[in-house]
Amino acid sequence: MTPAGSTLSMGPSFLDPEWLISAFGLIGILAVVFAESGLLIGFFLPGDSLLFTAGLLVAEGTYLHQPLWLVCLLISAAAVAGDQFGYVFGRRFGPSLFRRPDSRLFKQENLTRARGFFARYGARSIILARFVPIVRTFTPIVAGASNMHYRTFLLYNVIGATLWGCGVTIVGYFLGQVPLVRSHIELILIGIVVVSVIPIGIEILRSRRRRSDTRISHPQGGVGGSDRSDS
């Protein structure tokens, strides 16, 4: 078993980053990156931990025998292609998508969260969403549905895909060579998952606080309503 052999044990085995890489190699990594970047069904895939593990395994020479630069280049290209697909999909089906009922693999709340993220950060959201699970899947779709200027989207897409695809993989490559990290890889990957979902938790708390403040500021049946009824 490799030092990464104790990878993330949460969830089904097909979501284990090392299992995915051992079973499908670089092609599997690229497929997951593409799906998580722009396919509605890709939001649950292990993007961050997968890239970190890929960098670690490149450093080890286990399963992945391509040079680091090539792995980073192909991952970035797959991320760009995934977002491009999401943008085109949103441009074509966006309006009807916002009216689609919830299903086992589709939740309106995920789309609403991405729409709020896009509304808050504008074009920058294409870059920032790369580092926020779930949101990174739906943001390009929202951008397309919002008719974001294509050249602007493409520019921010390439920047975001490169920063995320190369950055997380390179971090995994160099940290994977540190003995302390190699001996505690499971904790490291769990930490990546926890850190990556923190922005979602913060946004949920902020949203709930805003709704609470709105209810306090505009209570139903307030004083104004009583005055009108008494007159």
Describe this protein's structure.
- With 231 residues, the chain is mostly helical.
- It has one domain (3-214).
- The chain is built from ten helices and no strands.
- Helix 2 packs antiparallel against helix 9 (185-217) and helix 4 (108-121) crosses helix 6.
- The longest helix has 33 residues, at 185-217.
- The chain is globular.
- Residues 1-10 and 221-231 have low confidence and may be disordered.
Summed up:
Helix content is 72%, strand content 0%.
List keywords for this structure.
single chain; about 230 residues; 10 helices; disordered N terminus; disordered C terminus
Structural class estimated from helices and strands: mainly alpha
Largest sheet: number of strands, sense, barrel closure? none
Overall pLDDT: 78
Number of strands: 0
Map the helices and strands.
Blueprint: H1 17-38, H2 47-60, H3 68-97, H4 108-121, H5 125-128, H6 135-145, H7 150-175, H8 179-183, H9 185-217, H10 223-230
Helix pairs in contact: 1-2, 1-3, 1-6, 2-7, 2-9, 3-6, 3-7, 4-6
